[in-house]
Amino acid sequence: MIEVDRLTKRYGNLKAVDDVSFQVEKGEILGFLGPNGAGKTTTMRILTCFLPATEGTARVAGFDVFENAMEVKRRIGYLPEHPPLYDEMTVDGYLKFVARIKSVAPEDLKRRLQEVKETVRIEGYGSKLIKHLSKGFKQRLGLAQALIHDPEVLILDEPTVGLDPNQIKEVRELIKSLSGNHTIILSTHILPEVSMTCQRVVIISDGKIVAVDTPENLTRQQQGAAHIYMEARGSDVELQRRLHEIEGVLSVVSKPLGEGEVSSYRIETELKQDVRGRIAQSVIEGGFELREFRSLQLSLEEVFTQLTTQEEVRSQ
Amino acid sequence: MRNLLAVIDKEMKVYFASPVAYGVLTVFLLVSGYFFYNILSVFIQRSMMMAVQAQQFGGGAPAMDVPALVERNFFGIVSTIILFMVPMITMATFADERRRATIELLLTSPLTHFQLILGKFLAAMGFFVVMLLPTLVYHAFLYLYSSPKMALGPVLSGYLGLLLLGAALISLGIFISTLTESQMVAASVTFGVLLILWVIDLSAQAAGPLVQEILGYVSILNHFDDFSKGVVDSSSLVVYLSFVFLGLFLTYRSIESWRWRT
Predict the structure, then answer these.
(1) What ipTM was predicted for this assembly?
(2) Within a domain: A301
């Protein structure tokens, strides 16, 4: 549905987007993850034909964003970082205006208005002035605006920023419910958002793509080794010796927990072989009291930090 | 066409939701009404004095066409007042869209730049017409009480001239509004530029013959004189329409270049 090929955007000497390529399938939700200033907004602006790219191409539904901008614009609903609202208009007046400039047929206008208001749950607010709406409602109206012409592609720039936790939850559920019929790209710098709503993640840093994958794969791959967390009672020295004897254990870090002889252990093992069973067995056989045993997963947060800091090291 | 109408409709709504609009309308009516009253009483006094003199010294009273003189001077004054009003009308057109980031909505909608610019221009013209409409009452009174009945030609040509002058100034103001995110900056720069045009006109009248001729063509106010006398000169029409075209063309280029720069 969306094909981005070697996209570059330069502002003077600064490369805001640098050789970015990725694809989005129909009905997919793609998360665009990166720190502030990484080039997320610029990429989205190019996709929505707001800005021209310096190099490279982008196609939406088969239409080039530069050559066939009108066709692309017809198929895209865009929620910019700041919802583009006119404070002095009413909710209905505003949505009608947007519907008209988005070429919604006059006979469909009323129905679409009703539908999007229901979708984003602002039914009772049609005659309210936009300036009197709360931040959360403004954000929803921003979404309604993007949905009004029932576009195939939705591009949402930080759709949950500035909302309270309940509103965030609502908006995320709304976005999820829209996938399938719509292809969605959403940008965020909040990691849980991506693992909660997106099927695939593009991590971007300093204008470059540093990773593209599913949230699960990313956390797994980046690990390189499996980690196990364990708590046990008994002689620390003895237990460490036993653990190191097991093949596949790479390192053990122990920390006394301060109640009797209880210590916590962080064990790094090779990914290829699962040694959890052998570790547990060895601990029990040694007569230690095993109090807790679980494998650790890197959070997306850690992956993100790893990827983006690696990038920095590489570029220096 | 629907797109264009949608833009005009929205612009009109935004205009009349703003206190600036009502301020502009009020000030314009007050000032133009004051001048109309003043001009009218000055010429009535003068004609009465001439009639008295004619009686004292004998001989027929010299013909003095009071309504024509009033119209001429009134349109002259109004064309100057417009210089102060146009910046207020055009300052928000693009500057405010940029400030509140609604320009992103407009430029990512299936709306051509031409439709957007023309829509904004026509809406500003619409507001301008609304501003001029109440002044028709002045002429209606003049017509009712004039005897013999005054000629209506100069009134019509005067309004035609005002519309053309307004269109030229508005297109220029819209262009300047694309250059900044601040309404205040847009308004002051527009006002400054219009003031320069006005000064060119004044200095053109004081300059030597050659310079006078050149400046006379550049000065858009100069071309207005004909209209207030009841003369519709095709060269003035061409000057105004090319001015409008130039302003809208510059607006178009400015939006394009702005997209490439940001």
Answers:
(1) 0.86
(2) no
